[in-house]
Amino acid sequence: MINEFRRARRRKVSDTILVTDAMTDSVVGRIGNLSETGMLLIASAPLVEDALYQFRFHLQDARGHETAFEIGAHLLWLDRASAPGQAWTGFRFIAVPPVQAEQLRAWIDAPGGQFE
Q1: Looking at the 3D structure of the chain, how many domains does it have?
Q2: Residue 115, domain member (yes or no)
Q3: Which candidate, 28, 95, 113, 115, has a CA 20 to 30 Å from the CA of 16?
Q4: Which residues, listed in sequence order, are joined to residue 54 by a DSSP beta bridge?
Q5: Would 84 be classed as within a structural domain?
Q6: Model confidence over 33-56: pLDDT tens digits?
Q7: What is the tens place of the pLDDT at every residue in 47-92?
Q8: How many CB atoms are closer than 10 A to CB 68?
Q9: pTM of the model
Q10: Domain-located, residue 2
C-alpha cells in the first residue's frame, strides 16, 4: 500500500471547468481536481513539461456567482492518456494574487465538495 502525503486538500471537480492559456487565448484542457497550491489538468492541447504557464478559468459558487481566476502555474509532470491528444498533467501554482487565493480557498472549502 502506498501512503501519499499532500500538503493541500484537492477538491474533485464535478462540472466541466475549461482552462484557457492566457497568452494564446486558447483552451488547453479541463480541471480534474483543484487545491490551493495546484491542479490536475486533463490537457487537450500539447504542453511542455517543466514550463511556466498563465491560465484563466472560472469557478462558480453555491449561489451561482462566477469568479474569474488568472493564475501562473508550473507544469510539474505529464502523463499521456489513452485517449489520443490528451494528457494528465500536474501543475503547481506560482502566482496567485491574495484576493484570488482567498476566493480559491473558499471554493475548495465550500460545503458539498468531494476530496481526493
Answers
A1: 1
A2: no
A3: 95
A4: 72
A5: yes
A6: 999 999 999 999 999 999 999 999
A7: 999 999 999 999 987 788 899 999 999 999 999 877 888 999 999 9
A8: 10
A9: 0.87
A10: no
